[in-house]
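in:
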């Protein structure tokens, strides 16, 4: 029996490898694992780039957020349509006024250029038991299930599914925002969606809100 040539198979394998490599290269790191280049910090009590207690630092390639003070790191660059990927896990420590509450953090996007706690934006909630919820800050609105949300100071939209891993394990969170549609994904599961967002461009922000939190990957792909 004559064996079939393996060349077409090899060509197919090589082609798929090139495609996968190309897709990976579409994502660019927002966090380089060495320092906070491309970001700046803001603390409620101290203002911009004044972080003497290192609420935000880089340790062993991880972004460490102590949570000791309310504030954030935020990108210097603004984004419009994008796919954001981040991997995080909770630490052990908690601080007032949330020392007796669930651990809380958050990724805000389409952040307007005004430094305060908290600036107008859309939040993908990172909180124990609530990862993927929407918080629509300072009159921001989206359409959920055909209805536009009210323009309030802070509007909360609970996720449709729960896909979190237990505290202490790494979780993968994704935000896809394109043409006003916002999708929150936890560990590969779509947990929340909104459309026709009233904000369509802005910076990306990661909170410090009373809980020790670690990020090991923050990547973005700008969508066309």
């Amino acid at each position: 029996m004559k064996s079939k040539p393996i060349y077409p198979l090899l060509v197919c394998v090589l082609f798929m490898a090139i495609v996968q490599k190309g897709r990976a290269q579409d994502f660019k790191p927002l966090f380089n694992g060495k320092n906070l280049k491309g970001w700046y910090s803001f603390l409620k009590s101290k203002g911009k780039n004044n972080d003497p207690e290192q609420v935000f630092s880089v340790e062993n390639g991880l972004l460490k957020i102590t949570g000791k003070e309310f504030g954030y790191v935020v990108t210097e660059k603004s984004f419009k349509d994008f796919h954001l990927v981040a991997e995080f896990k909770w630490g052990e420590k908690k601080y007032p006024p949330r020392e007796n509450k669930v651990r809380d953090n958050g990724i805000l996007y389409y952040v307007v250029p005004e430094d305060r706690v908290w600036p107008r934006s859309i939040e993908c909630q990172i909180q124990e038991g609530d990862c993927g919820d929407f918080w629509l800050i300072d009159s921001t609105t989206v359409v959920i299930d055909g209805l536009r949300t009210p323009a309030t100071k802070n509007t909360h939209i609970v996720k449709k599914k729960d896909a979190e891993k237990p505290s202490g394990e790494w979780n993968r969170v994704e935000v896809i925002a394109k043409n006003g549609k916002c999708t929150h994904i936890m560990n590969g599961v779509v947990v929340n969606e909104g459309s026709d967002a009233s904000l369509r461009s802005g910076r990306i922000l990661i909170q410090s809100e009373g809980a020790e939190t670690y990020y090991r990957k923050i990547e973005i792909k700008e969508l066309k």
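note: The chain has a mean pLDDT of 91.
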